[in-house]
Every structure is written in structure tokens, then in C-alpha cells.
């Protein structure tokens, strides 16, 4: 059996409550974070989509990219992942959050190179708690049944789905998966990235 094709899903539907503004619009070196992440993701996948809520469809930044609109209630990342799996059940989904400004193509290629299509997912370990990191992960078609069952049972945490699944677990890739959640973290990351050559 051949491996499923790898499609990309860029999660951008979060409410950004702690940031107090849309994280996708945050800019580093003049480039919105959403487009920065899109460039990295689309470089390593056969097709890629931005995951959006219905209310975000016509946002000018998101509207310029191929979209998958959530077909599940707004329950966080699980809604986007399940919606993508329903739309293209034959695909494996390389899922990334849009708020990982240090994520690069090399990190994603490392994840893909370690892929075992017979497993449910290939994921990195979080450097903060050693648990699977669901928002930079390659979800195989076989992961859908467990994620959907947990959703139907009222449990919306994709990390817990991974913990209960048969996965390839890789060491944390340094600080590549550090996300930003507050205006202070954004200002600090902006200074760091813009001071790099």
C-alpha cells in the first residue's frame, strides 16, 4: 500500500484572545505571520490550505489563499483538523499553527523524513513538557477515527488524541515550535527575528 499524499493545513482560526488581535496579521520583517507560515508549509506539501472559521472567509489576508472552512463547532484546532480530514480523507495532513514564527522548512522536512505511514501520526515532542506537539504534526488518515470519536464524546484536545494513538515521536526541534500568545511575547520575538541577518 502506498503512502497517502501529504497535504498542508495552516491553522488560522483561533480567537487570539490573549494577543488581543488576530495573530495571523502580526508582521515580522514586513511579512504577515500567516504568509510566512504559508510559504514554509506550501514548500513541503503537495497541496496546502488555510483553515478558517466561517466568519474569516472574506478576511483579505486569508482570502488570497486556498481555504478549508471549519465544518465543526469552534472547538479549537480539532475542528480544523477534522474538517480537513473530512474534505480529503485520502490525504495525510501536515498541520501547523500560524503562530510559530521560528518554524522553518528544514524542521518540516525533518518531520516528513521520519514519517511512518503505518502509524497514526508523526510528531515532535514539546520542549516544555515532553508531550506530543499536535500543532506541528503529520496526521495520517488512520488518525481520523480516534480524533472524531473523541470529538463526538465532547473531548476536543488533539494532544490527548495523539497520546492515545500509535505515533512516531521525535525529539523537540530546539525553539522552532515556540509560539507567541501575548503582545509582550510578540514584541520580543519581533526584535529577535528582525535583528537576524
TrEMBL record:
Superkingdom to which the source organism belongs: Bacteria
Keywords from the named record: Cytoplasm, GTP-binding, Magnesium, Metal-binding, Molybdenum cofactor biosynthesis, Nucleotide-binding, Transferase
Domain MobA-like NTP transferase residues, every copy: 8-150
InterPro entries linked: MobA-like_NTP_Trfase (IPR025877), Molybde_CF_guanTrfase (IPR013482), Nucleotide-diphossugar_trans (IPR029044)
One Pfam family of this chain: NTP_transf_3
GO molecular function: transferase activity
Protein known as: NTP transferase domain-containing protein
Source organism of this protein record: Dyella ginsengisoli
